[in-house]
Design goal:
Length: 137
């Protein structure tokens, strides 16, 4: 079965963590989870209390690659089967076109849509952010 093309909700990220044997370590304005791998490596992630909200493809890819350390297929398979992921797991090598901080500024401070951001080169996107930051307030 192939992985869905949609991104998960924060509730599904939390469900993955519970299925994959992560431990809830604290709750503030987010829920923070930790998993200690057999190698001794410690992974950490967090989920938003807006459980039904979703995220961009870029953010999901980054979470898979840097926090959960699983492939997109393994993520959805764990949710489908309620079985933890075997590690070491191959992780997605696809890197987002833009760095996450650039995307956040473009979306939340400059009001750009994901479609508009995707059309920008890395250089154009960063130039827009730096120009925005250099404007007098």
């Amino acid at each position: 079965m192939s992985a869905p093309s949609r991104t998960p909700s924060w509730r599904e990220i939390e469900e993955f963590c519970r299925t994959d044997g992560w431990t809830l370590i604290r709750e503030t304005d987010h829920r923070f989870f930790q998993k200690v791998l057999a190698s001794g490596e410690v992974l950490e992630t967090h989920t938003s209390f807006s459980g039904g909200g979703t995220m961009s493809q870029g953010r999901f890819s980054a979470i898979l690659r840097t926090q959960l350390r699983v492939s997109r297929e393994q993520f959805w398979e764990a949710l489908r089967t309620s079985e933890p992921v075997e590690r070491p797991a191959p992780i997605e090598e696809e890197k987002p076109k833009h760095r996450l901080w650039v995307i956040q500024v473009l979306k939340h401070e400059l009001g750009r849509t994901e479609a508009e951001i995707e059309q920008l080169t890395v250089e154009e996107a960063e130039r827009l952010v730096y120009e925005h930051w250099s404007r007098p307030r």
